[in-house]
Specification:
- The complex is a heterodimer of chains A (303) and B (236).
- Chain A is α/β, with parallel strands linked by helices and 303 residues long.
- Helix content of chain A is 36%, strand content 29%.
- In chain A, the strands form 3 sheets. Chain A has a 6-stranded mixed beta sheet with strand order 6-7-8-3-9-10, with helices on both faces. Chain A has a 4-stranded antiparallel beta sheet with strand order 2-1-4-5, covered by helices on one side. A 4-stranded antiparallel beta sheet of chain A has the order 12-13-11-14, covered by helices on one side.
- The two termini of chain A are 34 Å apart.
- By secondary structure, chain B is mainly α.
- Chain B has 8 helices and no strands.
- The chains are: A alpha/beta (303), B mainly alpha (236).
- Chains A and B meet through α1, β6 and α2 of A and α1 and α4 of B.
Chain lengths: 303, 236
Amino acid sequence: MSTLDLRGVSRWYGNVVAVNDITVSLGPGVTGLLGPNGAGKTTLLHMMAGFLAPSRGEVVLDGQPTWRNPEIYRHLGLVSEREAAHGFLTGWEFVYASAKLHGLSDPRAAARKAIELVEMAPAQDRKLSTYSKGMRQRIRVAAALVHEPSVLLLDEPFNGMDPRQRMHMMALLHDLGAAGRTVLFSSHILEEVEQVSGTVQVIVAGRLAASGDYRTIRRLMTHRPHVFAVRSSDDRKLAVSLMGSPSVAGVSLDATGLTVHASDYGTFTRELPRIALAERIRVRQLVPSDESLESVFSYLVSA
Amino acid sequence: MNSTIAWITARGLFGRRRFLLLFPLPLIFIGITALAASIDTADEFATPVLVGIGVAVVLPLVALIVGTGVLGSEIDDGTIVHILTKPVPRWKIVLSKMVVASAVTAFVAGGSAFVAGWMTDGPKLGLALAAAMVIGAIAYCSLFLALSVVSRRPVLIGLLYIAIWEGLLSNVVSGTRVLSVQQYVVTLAQKLAGTDLLMSTVKLPAAIIMTVVVTLGGLYLAITRLRSFSVAGETS
């Protein structure tokens, strides 16, 4: 059981602030670090893993600073986003070398166990340069797990994985968290975070925008005004009927169709087909027009 | 010294295409020596060939390819992170890379120098030149290893050092010779062989002390810089 503590951590490059005064404590279980691209997730992860000095504040693992302290790697594993690996090594050699570098008493058994954990045993004798992106990612996870660290940090671990590999990796992270390890992974996709982690830290423009249980975050993200573009066989008639529903906050009508401001996402999407059916209007198009992640994040920040 | 790191380093070095560049240099060196020996007397060609090609070109270029290849290329492609996320003291990482780099450079440069020296003036000069090359290999590798942690363009800076500093300035401005590894190697070879065929420009004690200073200084710089190695924050 380990705790990774960030206390007032900031990092700037010249005039650009990449990470701005983040204080957070990560305990056992899976935590998702969610944020749009360029929010500072990677910078934050690098500081956690001891690969970058905070400009201000400190990062400590069980009381030990992570910067300039190689001893922390006995308890910490890192899977970086850059999918660099020694392509001339086979999967087995790569993980076995990691086990030996950790000075494990039985590196052979540890390597075998880690490779089985990520289901890479059938491909372990192939060179890393012949692996697919997802396979390389998995073998890198095996190398990071070979010493059974109490803290595992992963930067965008699901990038480049096919759906089956993604499910498998999610299950793996979930199991590791359930076994009492502190697992943190970053992602810019809400659904990924939601499926794996109990706790979510949302980071936007270098600041911690929201933090806590994923259900709370989910509610914050869904219980916000939603904008939909609707086209139908009779836009004007539909607009009148929609205004009668409490789930709709406003409707505007123009040449391209209707723009509906819904006050409640769930209710509106159930109401619309019911209203259309009752009024005998054919809905030709229903497009959520602000579903981009950036708008979700900007909403969170302003909330 | 860590055998696993040394093993990965050696595998990486021999696995890269850049490694093939190592072979033509010593072959050309030996070839020109053979050619010179067949048409000229030793005191005519010893300095231009053994020093001008062997010490001034083959040794530093091989050391540059190998010295920047063992660490610089891993920093370049990001694989160094796999080594750094292990509880291995940083001095052990640097030392392991240093041992591999020096050994390979010493073998390639020293081996060809032995053959070329023998062809010029018998086994004594061959052995002396090879021994001096081995010591020079250690100093150069330390220098280029440090360069690859300090700079993102170690090969370019290394080439500038070899071509401008050692190649040009040292021959024009005699004061800079005390700060040129090439001159230490020539001095060592000359004293070891006890021959007048080679012209040394630096005094022996100065050459010995400076070789030690360059080697230890390079190692120290590489180790301290690797201790606070930062992964550049990619703005993705």
